[in-house]
Amino acid sequence: MSLVKINTEHLQQFVSSADMEQMLPEVLAAKDELLSGSGKGNDFLGWVDLPEQLDGAIVESIKRDVERLTPKAQVFVVIGIGGSYLGARAVIEALQSEFAQCMPSARPLVVYAGHTLSEDYYHQLLQLLDNNHYAVAVISKSGTTTEPAVAFRIIKAHMERKYGHSGAAERIIAITDARRGALHDIAVREHYATYVIPDNVGGRFSVLTPVGLLPIAMAGYDIDQLLLGAREMRDICRSGDNYDNNPALLYAALRNILYRKGKKVEMLVNFLPNLKYISEWWKQLYGESEGKDGKGILPHSLSFTTDLHSMGQYVQQGERLMFETVVSVDNPHNRVPIPSDESNLDGINYLVPKSLTEINRNAQLGTVIAHRNGGVPVLLINLPTVDERVLGQLIYFFEFACGISGYTLKVNPFDQPGVEAYKKNMFILLGKPGYEGQQLV
Ligand code: PA5
Fold this sequence. Notes:
By secondary structure, the protein is α/β, with parallel strands linked by helices. It contains 15 helices and ten strands.
């Protein structure tokens, strides 16, 4: 059963049934390309059957590593950038307390490195690591990305000072290519525990490999349920051949219809701050997959009601170039009553009988109607709650829809040639051997 449900009731004035009918053959053809492997970038389709084909031995090994490292680590540092950390962070932050940093826990606190070159960030991280026992996952598919390489060199040196050479090696897990890359070579030389990122799975599609599963399991979340959700959604996405039985077809069709009508920006909206990194992961997934050949919807994200007080004005009355996709969650995990106050000086006693969730739900409905009436198409992705199984379904849904959507747009959704330009300029400016005398691009 799909736990991810798309609600199109606020799209009626923007998308007609004729639009939908016309788009159906295109998205079905795109789905066929994806499943038959006949489209562009077909050497990167390993993620399609990953939830089904992931070796159970890998999951068991991850659990053993978690058991081995948890007693040794108050902090677990995930070193990686882009697809090598965003998926793990999205799931962990969706599930953990907003205040995990300050709460006592039997689980290590997961922190991130290798996604920035800020010197102050590393200074502060080393202060944290001075004062806490820790372990590290260093993740890079290519094994040569500068940001995680720099972070790993700094943290490895710190670890070796703190735990000695072999003590550090016992606390490091490398996740990288099976055969190539500097990280692979370091891991072999230093005898680190390792996991392989399959050749045919690109970084932004790798959350259901050890890239995402190890950090998520370290943080204490149930990776079996995550994979169960992904498997369920894989079956739905593979078999569903119409808009009613395949949410990925429906989502891919809607966004391409809206794009062709000039809606060039998609804003992924949440009303729960713990979904912020789901949006960050989604932005990379769609931005890197579709933004090429002068085409592609610009993925943007907003957290409401917070951003209604900063971006709400633009959404309501600015250029009509966007549509919104609201990730809407039916049931929270907790209740916090609003206290009654006899004096009612703040005038909010009328809210007292209601739950905060009911207030938030009405804020959401009021926002959706206002934005729709202001000319912004709004589609809703309804989730029953936020847990591992639902997140597994959501992740696979977004991945499969991304593949269909990219093929419908007639781009290769599985490469990212544009990411190289900044790297080349950075290497020329920094004087990397081999880049001498080259022109900035
Ligand atoms: O989706 C991708 O392939 C990229 O965004 C990568 O995830 C990112 O560039 C990190 O690369 P690597 O894992 O090779 O260090």
